[in-house]
Each structure stands twice: as C-alpha cells, then as structure tokens.
Amino acid sequence: MKELIPKDQYGVFADARDIAWADSLFVANHFEKEHFHVLRDISKITDSNSGLSKDFIESNYELSYYKDSTGRKLPCYMMTRDGFTMLVMGYTGQKAMRFKEIYIKRFNAMEEFITTLVTTRKDFPLLTENIKLLHEKPKPYHFSNECDMINRIVTGMSAKQIRQKYGLEKGTSIRPYLTDDQVKMLETLQKVDIGLLLSVPDYEQRKRYLEWYKMKISDKPA
Question: How far is CA 123 from the centre of its chain?
C-alpha cells in the first residue's frame, strides 16, 4: 500500500486515496500483544462466518507484508478507523483503554491532515506537491501555514475566515468565491513561493518577499 503521509509512531498513516489506516504491527506493540495474536483476532473478524459483511471486511482490512530482522517476509494488516475499532473492541484493561484513546486521537489528527491536504491540493496544487517533496514527513501546518499566508496576502483573510464569511463547510474550496484577479494572483504567488521554499527557509522573510512581489505586480499598468 502506497503511503501518501508516512506512518507516525503509532503506525497511523494515509494512503494515496486519502484514507487513514493503522498498521497491525504497531497496534500489537502498543497494546503489548504478540503480533500473531493480533493476526489471529483479525483472522476471526475477517472470516466469512464472522457475521460481518464482505463489503465491510474488504473496505476496512487490507493484507500486507513486511520483512522482519532476519529478512523473512511476514504478513500484517492495514486497518481503517472502523477496522481498528472492531479489532480493539474486546481489548480491556486500563492500558488498553489508554491506547484506544490515543489511537482515536491519532486517527482524528490524520483525518484532519487529510482534509487539509485535499483542500490545499485543490486550491494550491503546485505548492502542495513541492511541500511534500521538501519534507520527508510533512505536518498539517506545512500546508496550512503556507497556503494561509498566500490567502491573507491576496484576500486579507485566511481560508477559514473566507469559509466562515460565505457559510462554507470545512474542506470546501474557496476559489469559486474569489474574483478572477484574486485567483490569478494566488496562482502567481504560489509559483513564486515554490522557489522561495527552497531558497528562503524563514517563513517571515518569504512572507515579506511575497508581499513585495504582489505590490510590484499590482502597481504595473494594465
């Protein structure tokens, strides 16, 4: 399974379809269980006689493989939030409850990240791809900070503020609500910022350069 957003310390990641998953190896480790016991539990859940629908099983569990320290190819499973929830439902005790809470928070954070990424991919496609190239493990703020900086320079508002102004749901693209000139300026500054990300690592300095550039091209006669 191709990882769009790499695994965090709990094995939670996002795939190329913008779906959050958890790796059974990490789950076994954090719940202090032998991995083969977790595989056994998943096998019971994914059995055709488990009572779960084929659609649920196929949508929420995906067989994968990893190499252990000796180089052996061994099975593991990737699980969605629903698949993970079904697995750990029977895990009890204080430690289990603590890690259930942690994983819920990690899934929430990853899904928030995916929403941010999907939105910025629509509004800032070139910038999004270059941020992913620059950061081995990009964080949500790598995308939101950069995009909001450009939005504020062009419109005077962050994307969140624009959505609030027009009563838009979270994750909705703001571009249809901007003027043609604003969209054109966003695209121009996005291209400039791609070069600045490599040459000017300081956020505030990039912001000053972009503000100066906007002022210069805005002052040009039509």
Answer: 16
The pLDDT of residue 220 is above 70: no
Q: Residues 210, 191, 195, CA angle at the centre, nearest 5°?
A: 75
Backbone angles phi, psi at 34, to 5 degrees: -65, 140
Which one-letter DSSP state was computed for residue 152? Answer: H
163 Cβ partners below 8 Å, 6+ apart?
Answer: 169, 170, 172, 174
**Whole-number pLDDT of residue 137:** 72
Q: Is the pTM of this model over 0.70?
A: no
pLDDT tens track for 42-55: 999 999 999 999 99
- Say how far apart CA 61 and CA 82 lie, in whole Å: 9
Q: Which long-range contacts (C-beta less than 8 Å, at least 24 apart) are formed by 5-13?
A: 5/110, 5/113, 5/114, 5/117, 5/137, 5/138, 6/136, 6/137, 8/106, 8/110, 10/102, 10/103, 10/106, 12/103, 12/106, 12/107, 12/110, 13/110
